Structures are given as C-alpha cells and as structure tokens.
C-alpha cells in the first residue's frame, strides 16, 4: 500500500494561551480573538498552526500529559528582506521574549536568528541573502 501524507497542522500545547497568542501576533500572524482551549490559524503557504491549552487538553484525554521539556520542535518563518530578520528579532526580544541566536549572516546563505515563544518553542527567522 502506497500511503502519502500531507503536512496540514502543527499543534503546540501551551501553558498561557493569551501570552502565546500575543507572541505569534507580534510575529505577524493574523490570529483571531479566542476564548476557548483551541485556536487555529492558517499560515502563509497553506499549513495551519494550532494552539491548545495543555491543562484542558490533559483533562479531556486521560493518560495524556503535557510535554515536560521545551525545545523539541522548531518553527521557521521566512521574511521578505534580510533586514526584516533583525527588525523582527528586535521587536520580539524587546517585548521580553528570549533571543537565543542573534541575527547573523549564516554560511548557508541566509540572514538568520532564533527566538523562543512563551513555552520555549524555538522560532527561527530567516531570509535568503541574495
């Protein structure tokens, strides 16, 4: 049997929904106002990004426990101009989010930086240099 999968949704279990949504709005995602335990947004390129309140999800799924370690998933977002990597990094770190890798010209030909979202998810920011 030949089964092929299509990437459709990346889901993040979050501790503080509002704080997490505020971070991704700063990143530039058009996230709707929400008051429930699940929020989903379409990403440029066709995939979806979902956020789930880990306490509520744990209560709905007996036996499931929230991840206890951070940094097991990294999301990468491309911007249009290399200078936008720096600007976005400064905006996010200026809002109190940890910058784990300051912007630099990577040897693989990208302007590149990394920040962490409120739950410790690694967010890479990049743009091709030429």
Q: Would you kindly provide a written description of the structure presented here, covering whatever features stand out?
A:
It is a single chain. The chain is α/β, with parallel strands linked by helices. It has a single domain (9-128), classed as 2,3-Dihydroxybiphenyl 1,2-Dioxygenase, domain 1 (Roll). The chain contains three helices and seven strands, in the order βαββαβαβββ. It has helices at 17-26, 54-60, 82-94; strands at residues 9-14, 38-42, 48-53, 74-78, 99-105, 110-116, 122-128. Strands 4-7-6-5 form a four-stranded mixed β-sheet, covered by helices on one side. A hairpin with a 4-residue loop joins strand 5 (99-105) and strand 6 (110-116). It is globular and about 50 Å long.
The tally of domains stands at 1
Helix content: 10-25%
Low-confidence stretches are none
CATH architecture descriptor name = Roll
Question: What integer is the average pLDDT?
Answer: 86
Biggest sheet features: 4 strands, mixed
**What is the oligomeric state here?**
single chain
Using the coordinates above, name the CATH class: Alpha Beta
The CATH homologous superfamily is called 2,3-Dihydroxybiphenyl 1,2-Dioxygenase, domain 1
CATH overall fold name:
2,3-Dihydroxybiphenyl 1,2-Dioxygenase, domain 1
* Radius of gyration, CA atoms, in whole angstroms: 16 Å
Strand order of the largest sheet: 4-7-6-5
The count of strands amounts to 7
Structural class: alpha/beta
The SSE order reads EHEEHEHEEE
Based on Cα principal axes, name the global outline.
globular
Instruction: Note the gap between the termini.
Output: 43 Å
